[in-house]
Automatic annotation (TrEMBL):
Domain Peptidase S26: start-end pairs: 15-220
Catalytic activity entry: Cleavage of hydrophobic, N-terminal signal or leader sequences from secreted and periplasmic proteins
Top enzyme category: hydrolase
Compartmental location: Membrane
EC number(s) given by UniProt: 3.4.21.89
Any Gene Ontology biological process: signal peptide processing
Signal sequence region: none
Keyword Hydrolase assigned: yes
Gene3D superfamilies reported in the protein's UniProt record: Umud Fragment, subunit A
Record protein name field: Signal peptidase I
Regions crossing the membrane: 12-34
Length: 248
């Protein structure tokens, strides 16, 4: 092999490595600062989000903390360019007792709020949140049970509306003590009220530093525990109607 051929081969390999490194750095920047993909592992946010939904989370929505970075290095505390979530936002956050775990819930309580559940009704600062029964869902892919489930539409004081499931009357989470949200913290609840580990239980108040980002759009959804890589299952298991739906 001539010197020119060796240089050409070496240059070609160097270019390939350079392109790969640049692509990885670009992907890291996008994941850290702009968007991060997440999959829904549980049914706590049904009917809004289903297991098998894959969504993008906007990282800049609430600024950046150490949890915005891969591996969550303890480089600084608090948030940079921070802003508070709005009541009703669906948020990915780090589980306070174990920040290696990601949770996704809806913000119902802001700093200083008093939050309580009474007979399945959400109260904020002593006032019942508007709640209206809008029908039933009889679809196990949405409810996880083989029977009709009551659906209630809640409308928060700022006008944000969403559907919640009522799987079980008089469940343990239907009546709680009054929680006073500390400064710099938020109160999170799942839309599947009777099947959600949230701020009513061991999640507790979520520090602002633990917020990862706001759930934005569902880009893929597949049912029955199938993997997106199992392309042969797409014709029967992919939930086409959920693709590119905004999370509200």
């Amino acid at each position: 092999m001539s010197v020119a051929e060796k240089q050409k081969k070496s240059g070609g390999l160097g270019e390939t490595v350079s392109v790969i490194v640049q692509a990885l750095l670009l992907a890291l920047v996008i994941r850290t600062l702009l968007f991060q993909p997440f999959s829904i592992p549980s049914g706590s946010m049904r009917p809004t989000l289903l297991e098998g939904d894959y969504l993008f989370v906007t990282k800049w929505a609430y600024g950046y903390s150490r949890y915005s970075l891969p591996l969550s290095p303890n480089l600084f505390s608090g948030r940079v360019f921070g802003s508070d979530p709005e009541r009703g936002d669906v948020v990915v956050f780090k589980f306070p007792p174990n920040p290696s775990l990601d949770y996704i819930k809806r913000v119902v309580g802001l700093p200083g709020d008093r939050i309580q559940m009474k007979d399945g009704q959400l109260y904020i600062n002593g006032t019942a949140v508007a709640r209206e029964k809008v029908g039933q869902i009889d679809n196990p892919d949405i409810t996880e049970v083989n029977r009709p489930v009551d659906v209630y539409r809640e409308t928060l004081p700022n006008g944000v509306s969403y559907d919640t499931l009522d799987l079980t009357p008089d469940s343990i989470g239907d009546n709680t003590r009054e929680f006073v949200v500390p400064e710099g913290h938020f109160f999170m609840m799942g839309d599947n009220r009777d099947n959600s580990t949230d701020s009513r239980f061991n999640v507790g108040f979520v520090p602002g530093e633990n917020l990862v980002g706001r759930a934005n759009i569902i880009f893929f959804s597949i049912a029955n525990g199938a993997s997106p890589l199992e392309i042969w299952k797409w014709p029967t298991e992919m939930r086409g109607s959920r693709l590119f739906n905004f999370v509200r």
